[in-house]
Amino acid sequence: MKPAVYLILFLFTNIAFTQELNPLDVYAIKALESNNDYRNQNANLFVQNNNIVKIMQIGNYNATDVSIISNKSNVVLNQIGNDNYINMYKKAPEINQSVVQSGNNNMVSDFSLYSSGAINMSINQRGDNLTIFNNGSNSISEGMRITQTGNSGTIYIFNH
To answer: Is the pLDDT of residue 74 over 90?
Structure first.
């Protein structure tokens, strides 16, 4: 026989032998599948019971500094554009907040001293050269929604 025929025969023999599973392999596959199910359940519990901060930045030279101290939080920060900056520090038992910046050269500084209640708020900026400073939280700011559109605007909010 020619060398090419030997090579094809050899490859076919390996393929034929590798398609057979013995009982130990089946047991190992089932063990790995159950381990993956266990990991998925733990991951779902982790997501439900812990702090989550999601940051999405599309553009150039965007920056974000975030420090969240909370038992339970769900914070979403989105920046679409260039040279946008968010600097946030929160400390509360529960935090649910979203910040969306669309445009260029926008800034949000959202600083809260310790709050005994939950913080629920949203900040939206659409335009260029917009700035929002939100300091503190209280019962008046609960559920607050801040929306700023246009160009070259500044909002200062002091909650104490």
So the answer is: yes
55 HSE (CA, 13 A, CB side): 14
- Output the six-digit token pair for 139: 């019962």
Q: Is the pTM of this model over 0.70?
A: no
Angle at CA of residue 145, ends 153 and 75, nearest 5°: 105
* Averaged pLDDT of the chain: 80
Distance of alpha carbon 84 from its chain centroid, rounded? 18
Selection from 88, 81, 89, 122 nearest residue 105 by Cα: 81
- CA–CA separation, 72 vs 51, rounded Å? 5
- The first and second tokens of residue 44, run together, are 């779902």
When pLDDT is cut at 50, 70 and 90, the band that residue 20 belongs to is low
What DSSP assignment string belongs to the chain? --HHHHHHHHHHHHHHHHT---HHHHHHHHHHHHHHHHHHHHHHHHHHHS-EEEEEEESSS-EEEEEEE-SEEEEEEEEESSS-EEEEEEE-SEEEEEEEEESSS-EEEEE----SS-EEEEEEEEEES-EEEEE---STTTTEEEEEEEES-EEEEE--
